[in-house]
Each structure stands twice: as structure tokens, then as C-alpha cells.
Amino acid sequence: MGRRRVVQDARRDREFEAFVAGAAVRLLHAATLLTAEPPDRNPRARRLLTLSLAHTYACWDGLRGEDPYDRTRGHLAARFARSTWRRPHPHPDSPLARLSPQERLILVLRLYEGVAEEQAGALLGLPAERVRTICDRATAHLLQPRGTPSAVPVAKAVSP
Amino acid sequence: MNRAQREAAARQIMERTPTPVPPDLYPEVLRRGGRMLRRRKAAARLMWLLLFAATAAFVVWALMARPWVEPPSETTPPLTGW
């Protein structure tokens, strides 16, 4: 019993270390985009990722074929969505500083991580159409030249 | 600019600045994850222990109280002396 557990622990640590080595760069970048911090000063993103990875480590033996990357990303997104009420203002150095937290979350999930609309919606409890709308709005905000007001006028075709 | 071009441009903006991974991230993950795992295992062990204790207590009570034996009748007086 004891020997088997030692072997299992060693295998888990080995697999998990390989997973973190491959996934940490991308996940930390995604987390830093979410928290809208500058890339070299990102304590909130680090904390978010540390807790999500620790959670993945703790349920590693119970994953049963589920992708650990998806699991960590889902946990990260859910934790970020939950922490909305104690979120400081975005740092101006972040590329997504002008977007709202929800816009950042959907933009990062959809475009940076390539999660399908339905999956992103299921993760956040939103219908897929709503995800599409928010993603379009966030993209428009992001590509707007700097200095223009962030309010997007509703375009209405007025025919004479 | 069509939709695909806009999405590609947004993707490019997001991928522009690389984020360095701090070297102390992995040890901290292991520390927290290991603690979480130990707590979960301890909770599971406690649950099994409680379940076992409850089962044992029930068996002991059942053997002493024998609830499956029909209790002696209290309404009809015992028929004696004939």
C-alpha cells in the first residue's frame, strides 16, 4: 500500500511538472490579459494561475482522460469571473486596459484561447449569441484608435 | 475590415507582449496543491471512518435490541393455570 502510493505520487509529480512546463507560459499570459496588468508586474495573474494550477494538481488522479489544460483554464476563468467585485482598475500598460472585465474574459477565451462560442457560453452561463455579441463589441473597442470615446454609437441605417 | 481580419488584428494585439514565468511559480503551486490534496485525502479518510463507526454502532445495537424478534403481547394476558 505504502509503496504503491509512493510510486503514484512520483508519477503524478512527473506528469504534472511536464504539463506545467508546457502550459504555464500560455496560461500566465492569458491570466495577465484577464487581469489587465503589465506583463512584468502581474501579482494578481500569478495568484490566479497558482491557485488554478494547484487545483489541477490536487485533482490530477481524478481527471480520467479530461484535458488538464482545459480544466485549469476553466477554473481560471471561473475564478476570475467570481472575483469581479474586488477588482482594481486596469493598468494602462495592458493591451486590454480599455475593456471591461467581462469583455476581456470573453475576448481572451474566444480569440486568444480559441474556445468555441458554445463552450465559452457554458463556462460563463451565457447563451452563445450573447458571447458572440460581447466578443464583437470587445473587438471593436480594442481596435478603436486611441483617444476616441469608448461609447460605440448604435449604427442605424436611415434611408430617405 | 471584415470579421476575420478584425479578429486576427485583436489576436495580434493580445499576443504582442510576452509574459515571463517567474521561477517561484512551480514550487508555490506544488506547495498549495499538495496541501489541498492532503486535506482532501484527510476529509475522505474521516468520512470513511465515520461511516465505519456508524455501521459498527448499528450492528452492535441491532444485536442487543433484536428488533426483528416479535415483542411479547401486552394486550392479552398470558394464559396460565389450566
Automatic annotation (TrEMBL), chain A:
From the UniProt record, list the coiled-coil ranges: none
What's a Pfam family this protein contains?
Sigma70_r4
Q: Which SUPFAM superfamilies match?
A: Sigma3 and sigma4 domains of RNA polymerase sigma factors
- What is an example of a GO molecular function annotated in this UniProt entry? DNA-binding transcription factor activity
Q: Where is the signal peptide?
A: none
Residues forming the RNA polymerase sigma-70 region domain are 96-142
Against InterPro entries, the record matches this protein to: RNA_pol_sigma70_r4 (IPR007630), RNA_pol_sigma_r3/r4-like (IPR013324), WH-like_DNA-bd_sf (IPR036388)
Protein's GO biological process: DNA-templated transcription initiation
Q: What's the protein here called?
A: RNA polymerase subunit sigma-70
What is the native source organism of this protein? Streptomyces muensis
The organism's taxonomy opens as:
Bacteria, Bacillati, Actinomycetota, Actinomycetes, Kitasatosporales
UniProtKB/TrEMBL annotation, chain B:
**UniProt region (Disordered), positions on chain:** 1-20
Q: Which residues cross the membrane?
A: 42-64
- Alphabetical keyword list: Membrane, Transmembrane, Transmembrane helix
Q: Identify this protein by name.
A: Uncharacterized protein
Query: What organism does the record attribute this protein to?
Result: Streptomyces muensis
Q: What is the lineage of its organism?
A: Bacteria, Bacillati, Actinomycetota, Actinomycetes, Kitasatosporales
